[in-house]
Amino acid sequence: MYETFYHMTHTPFSRNVPPEALYESRAMEDCLGRLSYAADRQLFAVVTADAGCGKSTLIRKFASSLPKEKYIFLYLSDSKLTPRWFYKGLLDQLGLESKFYRGDAKRQLQKEIEIIRGVHGQRVVCVLDEAHLLEKETIEEFRFLLNYRFDSESPMALVLVGQSELWDDKLRLKRYDAVRQRIDINCVLPHLDRAETEKYIQSHLIYAGVTDRELFSRRALDEIFRISSGIPRQVNRICEKALMYGCQQSLHVIDDQDILYVSEHEMLKGGELA
Questions:
Q1: Helix or strand run (H / E) with residue 105
Q2: Strands 157-163 and 123-129
Q3: Domain ranges, residue 205
Q4: For residue range 214-252, what is the model confidence (pLDDT) as tens digits?
């Protein structure tokens, strides 16, 4: 709809923007570098951020950066993940039928990883998303999985990704001391600042083919940052709705009053955008 009006070649603020076109803040660049190090050294890493701050974007960019001839990337996202289903999920992705009992499945996974590393010369990277929803039993299982060859090495790189409460409300607790002590890398994705928010919007517009004109005034960008608090997901929603409104009103430049109008008419109780 608005893509035609603004002469866009792609939809700028959709979920399916390719990884190479996604904006990379300084914090995200740092996290990507540290995750690459974790993948290379087969370490245990934790990534946390507030909802909407770019965890999925980080995972997509991280996965796309791993050479397929060198790494096997495994991804799980299940709030009800038990230890048995954790092993089953990984073995399924490796094309194997999992043993029924947890201990057997764990040994089966470790044996397969040895083959992958020793015969094929590849390293396994496992990303576990929505990890803030995991139960105590599953979190503690990571300690036993990573306790490999008398705790002298890790069988794979393990990355837990979750909202801020993963660290604040779970891993900080004394009951998780043994797990926390094994964490090699801890990454935190902050909110974007004002300058980063503008660069984020510009990068998405460039992806959409808008390179020769200004669609959002500087005051509009100020309002987008203020309303979104620098949360990328909220920036996407505000910009998407503003472009739809701008198209309907035949606005070639969207100003701060347009952003205010959109936010006031699209906001739900509790401060969430519709």
A1: helix 102-118
A2: parallel
A3: 2-11+192-266
A4: 999 999 999 999 999 999 999 999 999 999 999 999 999
